[in-house]
Each structure stands twice: as C-alpha cells, then as structure tokens.
From TrEMBL:
GO biological process: amino acid biosynthetic process; aromatic amino acid family biosynthetic process; chorismate biosynthetic process
Main location: cytoplasm
Claim: Signal is one of the keywords in the record: no
Annotated residues for binding of Zn(2+): E183, H246, H263
Compartment annotation: Cytoplasm
Ranges that cross the membrane: none
One cellular component (GO) term of this entry: cytoplasm
Binding-site residues for NAD(+), renumbered to this chain: 70-75, 104-108, 128-129, 141, 150, 168-171
InterPro entries associated with the record: Dehydroquinate_synthase, DHQ_synth_AroB, DHQ_synth_fam, DHQS/DOIS_N, DHQS_C
Summary of the function given for this chain in its UniProt record: Catalyzes the conversion of 3-deoxy-D-arabino-heptulosonate 7-phosphate (DAHP) to dehydroquinate (DHQ).
Residue span, 3-dehydroquinate synthase C-terminal domain: 180-324
Organism per entry: Sediminihaliea albiluteola
Keyword Cytoplasm: yes
Protein name from the UniProt record: 3-dehydroquinate synthase
C-alpha cells in the first residue's frame, strides 16, 4: 500500500493506494469517527463491492444504505436529495460519515450531500473507476449537474480519506477505463512532461491493465492532483489548469443531455481542441498535436468534437462555464507539453477553426 497526503492544514487527508484495500483489516473503519454511516453506491457497483465494504465498516450503531440509479443523467439534485432523505429518515446526526462507493458520479453527489447535511458532515471516498481514482475522489469538488450546465450546483468539501482499491478496476468496462486514462493524460499535458513521455511509451501496458504500470499511473496522477489542490484549494488561480479540455468537454456533455459521451471522452476531444489552438498560437508543434491525436486514437478516445455541434452551440454553452469572468471566456491551453496556461483572449476565428478544421 502507498500513502499520499493532500496538504490542506486542518482539512488535510490521506490517499491510500493498493490492492484489495477494502479487505485490509481496520483501514476503512479507522477513517471513520463515530458509529453512524450512510453508505452510498449505485445499482452497478453495490452488487459488486457493497458486501466487502459493509464487512470493512465493522459493527455500526446505525448503518444506512442508498443505492442510486446508474449514469451521468442521474447526477441531479433529486438524487442528491435522496441521500439526504435517507439520512434524515434513519435519524443520522451530525457525527455521521457518508461513504461514497463508486465512480465520479456517486462520489460527487455523496460529497455534495455530505457538504449540505446538517451544514456539513464527514465523508470518505471509495473510488471504483479509474477516473474517480485519479481525479474526482481527490480535491473536494462536489456537486450535481443542472440542465443548463455541468456541475453548476455544488460545494468545495474535502473528504476525510480516499481509499483506492485498485482491484476494483478488474470489473471496469473497457470504455470506462479509457475515459479514466484521458484524465491521466491530462496531468502529463498540464504539469508533467516526463510523465507524458512515460505515458506515450507505456500506453500499451496501461491498456492491457498491467498492474505495475497502473499503480504507477494512479500514484503519479494523484500526486499531481494533490499538489495542485494544496496550492489552490478553491480554484482562485492555478487549480483551473485541471480544467484542460473541460470547457469544450462540458459543452459537449451538456449539448448531448449528459450520458452519451462519457466525461473522459468529452474531455479527450476537448484536450485535442485545446492542443490545436495552442499549436495555432505557435506554442505546440504540429507533430506534438499529431502525437496526442495518435495516442488518443490508440486509446479509442475521440479526437474531434461531435460533428453535429456548431460554433454557436459551443459559444452558447461555453459562455456558462464556471471559469468565465465578467463575460470573458477563459480557456486552458498548453504553452508546451507539461505546462498549461490560462488565456482570456480566444477569438471567434480561433474557435471556428477547431470546430470545422481546415
Ligand atoms: N470532483 C471532481 O474533481 C471530478 C473530477 C473528474 C470528474 N468528475 C465527475 O465524475 C463523473 C465521471 O466519473 P466516472 O467516469 O467515474 O463515471 P461514473 O461514476 O458514471 O462511473 C462510470 C461507470 O462505471 C460503473 N462502475 C463504477 N465502478 C465500477 C467497477 N469497479 N466495475 C464496474 N463498473 C463500475 C458505474 O456504475 C458507471 O456505469 C462526471 O460526472 C464528472 O463530472 C468530477
Ligand atoms: O478538480 C478540479 O479542479 C478539476 O477541474 C478536475 C476535473 O477533472 C473535473 O471534471 C471537475 O469536476 C471539473 O470541475 P468544474 O469546476 O469545471 O465543474
Ligand atoms: Zn474531469
């Protein structure tokens, strides 16, 4: 087992990474103060792992369980309220702990419910997708979607601990696995050129789910995320680099009504768009953009925006992005591989070229 730490003063917490962690004696139980727990999962993950987690929680005076419907289209206020309703109905007090068992959708909603319940209770992340293990379980961004915009309702609320049981990846479908790798690639692109080069070389091993390669990719991703979050917990500045590809990606997800392209797939298309814009500004070479395109193709990730989306669609949806300040669109671009920059001067012409290249 490897342990990393997110350094945030009194809100600091550990990230444990290892095999079969849900069955590691006492590890989960030790993260939870008090004897009350609300375990939140979904209809796909609960049948796979809830028994193990229940056993790891040990004897509890009060244990409630919420099994949510599966999918991004259910990342809503209504489902978040379902968690709150269960906690209220079962009489959970302020010293309860919410435990999120699942991917980013379950984690984001459970964290948001924990942030709101009685003005804030503890929560622990048990991420079971690659995407959740390398990204969403760390950093305390919680929330739900609004029909008009992605993650528009939420709160910053840090977990007490993150337990990454890498064995759970064995049951993850291929498409979900690749979507998680998109966010892994993001760290190389924004802040770690050496890691990016390592990913290019080791992608075949990762796609084959080689254990050693996966463990290294998860650890390096979590270390990057922890460092960025520790530097800027509430996205006043540098944390926005974690949004590479997301301004475009969130527009795509929203345009599709959520749940057609996976989050990681939409981000993958968005990262190529950001790379193309960076190349047009002379910051990346055409070879570097092609390298990214080839890599993402090898991962079966999208490299173009959906053909049905027009410039106007992107403009309307991106105008609602949370990074917009006083009506000015802010985009994360790449100064070079491994170094992100935030720009606020993207022209219509530059955007048009991304949507209808050539
Ligand atoms: N809070 C953050 O910082 C942050 C970061 C990145 C993404 N996100 C959010 O995370 C969400 C995407 O997360 P995701 O990609 O994990 O999607 P997800 O939570 O929908 O999970 C993907 C699919 O895999 C299934 N699943 C989960 N674990 C499994 C397992 N071990 N075996 C088999 N199936 C399993 C799920 O039921 C689901 O069908 C988006 O809503 C995105 O906005 C948040
Ligand atoms: O942790 C962050 O900060 C991120 O931006 C990570 C992203 O991968 C993630 O998708 C996040 O939920 C996006 O946040 P948003 O503020 O753009 O909704
Ligand atoms: Zn993301």
């Amino acid at each position: 087992m490897h342990t990393l730490r997110v350094d945030l003063g009194e809100r600091s917490y550990p990230i444990y990474i290892g095999r079969d962690l849900f069955a590691t004696p006492e590890l989960l139980a030790e993260q939870i103060q008090g004897s009350q727990v609300v375990l939140v999962s979904n209809e796909v993950v609960a049948p796979l792992y809830a028994d193990k987690v229940r056993a790891a929680l040990g004897e509890r005076k009060l244990l409630s369980e919420v099994v949510l419907p599966d999918g991004e289209q259910h990342k809503t206020m209504a489902m978040m309220e379902r968690i709150i309703d269960r906690a209220m109905a079962d009489g959970h007090s302020r010293n309860t702990t919410f435990v999120a068992l699942g991917g980013g959708v379950v984690g984001d909603m459970t964290g948001f419910a924990a942030a709101c319940y009685q003005r804030g209770v503890d929560f622990v992340q048990l991420p079971t997708t690659l995407l959740a293990q390398v990204d969403s379980s760390v950093g305390g961004k919680t929330g739900v979607n609004h029909p008009l915009g992605k993650n528009m309702i939420g709160a910053f609320h840090q977990p007490r601990a993150v337990l990454i049981d890498t064995d759970t990846l064995q049951t993850l479908p291929t498409r979900e696995f690749a979507a998680g790798l998109a966010e892994v690639l993001k760290y190389g692109l924004i802040c770690d050129a050496q890691f990016y080069r390592w990913l290019v070389v080791n992608m075949p091993r990762l796609l084959a789910r080689d254990e050693a390669a996966l463990a290294e990719a998860i650890e390096r991703s979590c270390a990057s995320k922890a460092a960025v979050v520790a530097a800027d917990e509430r996205e006043g500045g540098v944390r926005a680099i974690l949004n590479l590809g997301h301004t475009f990606g969130h527009a795509i997800e929203n345009h599709q009504g959520y749940g057609q392209w996976l989050h990681g797939e939409a981000v993958a298309a968005g990262m190529v768009m950001a790379a193309r814009m960076s190349a047009a500004r002379g910051w990346l070479s055409e070879e570097e953009v092609q390298g990214l395109v080839d890599l993402q193709r090898s991962m079966e990730l999208p490299v173009e925006p959906p053909p049905e989306m027009s410039l106007a669609d992107f403009q309307t949806l991106m105008a609602r992005d949370k990074k917009v300040i006083d009506g000015r669109l802010r985009l994360v671009l790449l100064r070079e591989i491994g170094s992100a920059v935030i720009v606020d001067d993207a022209s219509e012409d530059e955007l048009q070229k991304l949507i209808a290249p050539g």
